[in-house]
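Action item from last meeting closed. Structure (346 res):
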């Protein structure tokens, strides 16, 4: 059987990423995954300045495409399709990827596949990892927990392109909470998740009591803005909070992880599911990965947890290409429009 090769372009936020993936039988392999980030510039401003992010992406995209093809040892004529993040994201950033993909689709005469970035994150779980011969992709039906900088959602994925929305955050996303708390504590400007998690490693969460919002609400929704406010209040009341930074960071991380784990297990039990997968930047968090695994095996013995490699949790073109591979819906390059408001809620 002929293999299938797809180019994936992702530019929904501050990264410009282009990947080439190949499907051979049941195996999905990464041939290249190039990521150019303007994070250093964005960090100086304490967050993403949308117009500036888009300008940097416009400057980077041709070089990133060229490098991705070169590193995959691929020529445009080898490609079976071009896929691109259609949304959600920052409109200026999305336009860079979408308009480039439309142009390439026309000049190279290749099918164009638009992708929902939120669903795409889950496809990190389908990419075979080099040197891991026992690799198995997730099996449907699966509970999917998406935890990124802008989204926290639980879905029941029944098949490729077929899912039920189970719940999501009513305010801040989990990653947003990590980032905002890191900023309040003065440990990182943007994004702060990794720094906060590093600091938490040396701390004792039991030393600081923080809320675990909606832990016992009985539904599958989340809310993280109250936790951020509690951290702000704590720093305002205690001028010496800096002496306790590791414990505070550990308590913030534990609050977020405990809520994510509890709701994911609830979703598994309510739907009698034996497969869970996590995705998005916060899925790189080691506490979430470990505690979810431990609690799932306590709650139900026959449940498999699929965890993507850390390098594929944050934004990248590979997940765009793999999502397109399994959801191959071609559109006209003359009519495709970037859509910043796509959600998982249906
Ligand atoms: O999925 P992603 O790359 O971008 C969006 O599509 O939003 O996620 C970025 C988010 C940021 O909020 C970042 O702080 C968080 O993921 N993040 C982490 C970790 N690594 C990235 N949060 C906690 N622990 C980590 N190790
Ligand atoms: Zn993302």
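Sequence:
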């Amino acid at each position: 059987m002929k293999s299938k090769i797809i180019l994936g372009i992702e530019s929904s936020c501050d990264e410009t990423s282009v990947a080439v993936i190949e499907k051979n039988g049941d195996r999905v392999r990464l041939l290249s995954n190039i990521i150019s980030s303007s994070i250093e510039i964005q960090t100086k401003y304490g967050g993403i300045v949308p117009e500036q992010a888009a300008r940097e992406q416009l400057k980077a995209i041709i070089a990133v495409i060229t490098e991705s093809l070169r590193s995959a040892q691929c020529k445009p004529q080898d490609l079976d399709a071009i896929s691109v993040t259609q949304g959600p994201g920052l409109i200026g950033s999305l336009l860079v990827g979408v308009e480039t993909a439309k142009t390439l689709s026309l000049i190279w005469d290749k099918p164009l596949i638009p992708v929902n970035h939120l669903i795409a994150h889950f496809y990190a779980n389908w990419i075979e990892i080099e040197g891991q011969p026992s690799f198995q992709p997730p099996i449907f039906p699966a509970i999917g927990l998406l935890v990124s900088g802008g989204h926290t959602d639980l879905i029941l994925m029944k098949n490729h392109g077929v899912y039920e929305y189970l719940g999501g955050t009513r305010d801040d996303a989990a990653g947003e909470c990590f980032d905002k708390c890191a900023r309040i504590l003065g440990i990182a400007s943007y994004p702060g998740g990794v720094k906060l998690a590093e600091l938490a490693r040396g701390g004792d969460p039991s030393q600081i009591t923080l809320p675990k919002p909606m832990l016992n609400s009985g539904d599958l929704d989340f809310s993280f803005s109250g936790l951020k406010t509690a951290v702000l209040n704590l720093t305002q009341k205690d001028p010496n909070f800096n002496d306790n930074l590791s414990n505070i960071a550990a308590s913030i991380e534990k609050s977020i992880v405990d809520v994510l784990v509890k709701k994911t297990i609830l979703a598994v039990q309510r739907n009698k599911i034996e497969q869970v997968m996590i995705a998005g930047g916060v899925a790189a968090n080691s506490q979430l990965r470990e505690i979810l695994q431990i609690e799932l095996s306590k709650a139900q013995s026959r449940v498999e947890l699929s965890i993507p490699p850390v390098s594929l949790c944050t934004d990248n073109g590979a997940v765009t290409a793999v999502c397109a591979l399994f959801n191959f819906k071609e559109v006209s390059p003359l009519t495709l429009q970037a859509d910043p408001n796509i959600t998982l809620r249906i």
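Note appended to the action item: The pocket of KG4 (ligand 1) is lined by residues 13, 148-150, 175, 178-179, 191-194, 197, 280-282, 284-285, 314-315 (CB under 6 Å).
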